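[Meeting: bench + compute handoff]

Bench side (C.D.) handed over the final construct sequence. Compute side (W.E.) agreed to return the predicted structure before the next meeting so the bench team could plan truncations. Sequence as handed over:
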Amino acid sequence: MYCEFMNRPFFSIIIPLYNKGKTIRDTLNSIICQSFVNYEVLVINDGSTDNSCEEVLRIVDKRIILFTKENGSFKREKLWNAICIFS
């Protein structure tokens, strides 16, 4: 019997991102190198003005999902609702 939950990640890792272009690739590579693979990584870019988004997009992995918004444009509960919708 097919179960919808079998295709869903076991858990989500949420990474807030703001102007961390120099370190975000190391962070994501550290996660990717783990032996457990049934997860998703939600990177929430809060209007970075450096190359943060470009660095995230350089890593090709379907488990990494980048969300971008204007700096400070969401309240915490709105951001949580947005994440729940896409999860």
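W.E. noted at the follow-up: The chain has a mean pLDDT of 85. C.D. will use this when planning the next construct.
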